[in-house]
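BUG-250 | component: ligand-complex export | severity: low

The export step for adenosine-5'-triphosphate jobs runs without errors, but we want the raw record kept on the ticket for reference. Input record follows.
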Amino acid sequence: MSLLTVSHLSRSFGGVKAVQDVSMSIPLGSLTALIGPNGAGKTTLFSLISGFTTPDTGTVIFDGKDITGQAPHLSAKLGLTRTFQIVQPFAAQTVRENIAVGAHLQHARRVDALHAAETVAERVGLASQLDKPAKDLTVAGRKRLELARALATQPKLLLLDEVLAGLNPQEIQDMLPVVRGIAESGVTVLLIEHVMQAVMNLAQHVWVLAQGQLIAEGSPESVTQDPQVIEAYLGQGTAARLRKAKQDSV
Ligand SMILES: Nc1ncnc2c1ncn2[C@@H]1O[C@H](COP(=O)(O)OP(=O)(O)OP(=O)(O)O)[C@@H](O)[C@H]1O
């Protein structure tokens, strides 16, 4: 069953076709990844799905409802939440209070939101940092906080925008089980990621965007060997050059 169905979604900014006629279907309970070179349209696609940007054409159906162009807080209430590449916590507030902001979507009473924040902190490995001001967190801590705030809204679908960016190899290794754990708890996850090691490690299915268009999809192994994908990342003619280099070397 599809939890999210995007049909023929397009959005231009002036002359730039950021997203062009993109259609995709995200199965309930899946962990999939959206990859593509810089400027491919990945973040714009997230913004179109989550309601931060209105599409020129196309539709977004989430959990059986048409949410095209719907305000982000209404979609979040239905269970669709996204994170942002640039993490902006309330710096002077504690980690607990920051996570509670997300929890308030489902919990009207402050005491309940603060309590829910503690449970979520456990899930992302922030339990020991709950009383720290957010500004005292490391980059890796801030990434976990962003994840926690999103998780606290109790999403059915979580759109993760580069939660591993800026982390060192050890921090990435530490974060992978956190993301996998979220998916295993029943949350459907779609992640934008440049760290290919993480994509290969986590994703069951990969979507590839280039210049606003979906150019490939499939298993991580198949898309990374797709000539069109190699060209999109490394430039025209690369796939043929690589093939020739391989033939010459045998
Ligand atoms: N608000 C905007 N106004 C004008 N142009 C925009 C706007 N948002 C995105 N763009 C343009 O749309 C294109 C797609 O950008 P987008 O940020 O979606 O790509 P991306 O794949 O997320 O890139 P990256 O991997 O570098 O984050 C780019 O050419 C970008 O400059």
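Assignee comment: Attached the raw record above. The first helix runs from residue 42 to 50.
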